[in-house]
């Protein structure tokens, strides 16, 4: 468990093994608690809601698409500042429309805590909301009327922060786990043992609303630990769909949520009732009914890696249902498993992953940079890597500004999200790869480089595939030369070129600095001695007012010497990055943000961003082979580059 975003969140599974986590996602079931997401409910007139939310989206990907407004599917969009597209993104949000036949619509927007405040301020400003505390009950946490906002257009917004819990089940056995744990009627009647997995129209019509949106209290069911088995092949499992009537849940009603939460009996009370009753499990009419909402994302790949079902429940029932789910011998994961799913499926559209042009990503990058720098300087001089000789000026962060400046003469950058242009880039690179493999020329698209003239300062997200080695975070993506490609074609075992060892002009200064170590150690001993002297003594009321001016001046002088020496040391060992594109023997195209060995692909893969002009350059060269080099290596590795699949990124 770690403390993050003002929450205590699981960081990784109890067995610490990524292999076990991957096996659970592809062969079993992975359970995660994502209740740290905040649900924001907005109610208002349909056209007004859609128009107001459209100002915060890509015009080609909005909240108002028909596949989402019907309330049968959860959507994910990049949320921008008002009229800020294509720049000024805030982050990805998940949203779900309530099934409604009237003109008054309700939408739930699930926001990641990393950018929750920024999102909320933008919504309040855009909708012109004002807080409405009239007639509220401050003791009613479940209803949470304290966070009620209204505007002149008749819209209402509620912050359902302590009202709902959300659990995520990933993997091919997620449906079976829910069926055996919660006994939801629609899942019970869904025959997972047959080959005809999708429910028929007759089955859907035979299930009424009262049965579809509730689950029985799992404490009244026989307590047994079981290991859920896959009853279907992955190919068949892809087509299993939950009935859309599951979205007609009573959990949308605030009063019902309040009543259900207050009626939750304690375990002690249930134990006493069971001791006095002959039937320890009671009848169906006696067992409490829990309103739930199931949100499914079917698998896209045959591995079932990206298949998941989210269950949303009233907050007081969260612990009860969590314990019931864990009895199914599934694996409980945390943030590490979320990143693993993103990495293996290349699905970077989730709110947990932020593009480098978002303010959240910039703040996170700065924090990570400072942490890694402090860790670097905590080692002895003999243990530190001399990144200057490796030609790496930004070993602990991705210098997007200087990268963009080197390719477009401007430091302002943003990620390209123009769907049509991204499709053109992806298709053209695939044609380049096919031509290179078949040694033929295929012309299927009308690719015009002039379409990208106004996007020269953009970054494009790419995926890398390496036959040898594995890329790490902050690894540089470089342009391959004709000589590199020629040698690679002749010898497929050719590992790649090697970066020359750079000259460290400050090496002498670093040796001079070592002479001052003895002086700094002496000053450190003085500080320790002073602390020990004052430890057992009663300090004066105004300790800062030291009467001995001479001693106070000496103390200030010593602290200044130590601070200056530390700044000088850091400047000599890690000089400021001013050039990226031509900092190495090969032209730098971009950086790897996520990289490692992939269980799904059986080799090293990476996810990163490259400058758009560099991507156009490799299209002109008719080759998608690039070079990747880690920050602590001189060896370049060949990698195949492709633009991230839009179906994975925007579905």
TrEMBL record:
Residues 309-400 form the POPLD domain. It comes from the Eukaryota. GO terms for biological process: tRNA 5'-leader removal. SUPFAM superfamilies: Aminomethyltransferase beta-barrel domain. Residues 193-218 are annotated as: Disordered. Residues 458-644 form the POP1 C-terminal domain. PANTHER family: RIBONUCLEASES P/MRP PROTEIN SUBUNIT POP1 (PTHR22731), RIBONUCLEASES P_MRP PROTEIN SUBUNIT POP1 (PTHR22731:SF3). This is Ribonucleases P/MRP protein subunit POP1.
